[in-house]
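Appendix B. Chain record.
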Amino acid sequence: MDRYAIVETDNYAGDYPDEKFVEPLPFLNEENANKIADLINDLNGERFDRYYKVVKMPYVLQPGFEP
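Structure tokens predicted for this chain:
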């Protein structure tokens, strides 16, 4: 069975999204992961600077800007 996780990322498609896994959620099936991510995004609204997406594991997080 495939495993999915929810990732917090930049809502404005920046070059350095500084992604993080949403913890302490366990790995989920795709349907449940999408329900949770959609709920979080709906509660935050369109103009929130962060966005929550579902990714298939394993997934490599994209780093933030490092001066």
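Further analysis of this model is presented in Appendix C.
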